[in-house]
Amino acid sequence: MPKTSLKGKEMPPSPIRKLVPFAEKAKKEGKKIFHLNIGQPDIETPETMINAIHSFAPKVVEYSHSAGIESYRKKLTTYYKRFNIDLDYQEIMITTGGSEAIEIAMMSCMDPGDEIIIPEPFYANYNGFSTQANVKVVPICSSIESGFALPPVSEFEKLITPKTKAILICNPSNPTGYLYSKSELESLRDLVKKYDLWLFSDEVYREFCYVENPYTSVMHLSGIENNVVLLDSISKRYSACGARIGALISRNKDLMATALKFAQARLSPPTFGQVAAGSAVDTRIVILKKLNQNISAEETSLLKV
Asked: With contact defined as beta carbons under 8 Å apart, do 255 and 101 qualify?
């Protein structure tokens, strides 16, 4: 019998999804299960998204552009403006979920055997993505005593080798919930600039900030514009995990051109998911209208994009 691949043997199974059979068994036994494991929000997907899918009736469900539907990418630039992130739509590539954004980022920026430093605890699937990209994860421990704050830059420097090519953070963090401060991100900026590293930032949870500290994106950092890669997804903020729509964002033109080649190899992101995601940008405006609250002219124009 033929043998499976070495990479397949090295590919780690999801430790989180190992819990699914136990939950399903408990449900069949009539037990109440509170899902704190799988990352699926317990709120309904916005009605605007569901309606967009129902009303989408093309005669042919075509491939979209490999970088994503242009109108959706343009609409996304207005979403990011709400967080003081100014982008050109060509700096956004739509992916099949945030997972593919991370995979393509790693494959576009790193060679087999290169190393990526990630503060630990971290999202378990980062291990799987790195295995697929033949990249070595080098964990750096954050401490519960400090609330899982960013480890000192001096600790990062101890781990940097000639093989180190990138640092990956999740902000706000999954699973710790920690929100990195502006000063912490600026210390990372200085380190990235010193060693000319890539800085990947998974910011899927930006709307889930429950502290007084303001949310700061890596896209707000000056001086390393060509080093920064923002990784995003609609899964959490719209409770739309199954739509499988994410984004890889960078101002580095060479990176975006390289990433597009990987995107072309998989043809296009999901059409129905993009249609739903485009309507999701309107959700906030629709809610404000229902509440009879004032809407700026700029936000009103979103509905026309």
From this structure: no
List Cβ neighbours of 276 (8 Å cut-off, separation of 6 or more).
49, 50, 52, 53, 240, 243, 245
167 DSSP β-pair partners: 117, 199
Q: How many CB atoms lie within 10 A of CB 160?
A: 16
For the chain, the farthest-separated pair of C-alpha atoms sits apart, in whole angstroms, at 67
The DSSP line for 217-235 is -GGG-SS-TTTEEEEEEST
pTM of this prediction exceeds 0.85: yes
What would the two tokens of residue 294 be? 């004032």
CATH 3.40.640.10 is right for the domain spanning 64-302: yes
CA 167 to chain centre: 15
What is the percent of the chain where pLDDT is above 70?
A: 92
Q: How far apart, in whole angstroms, are the C-alpha atoms of residue 280 and residue 207?
A: 14
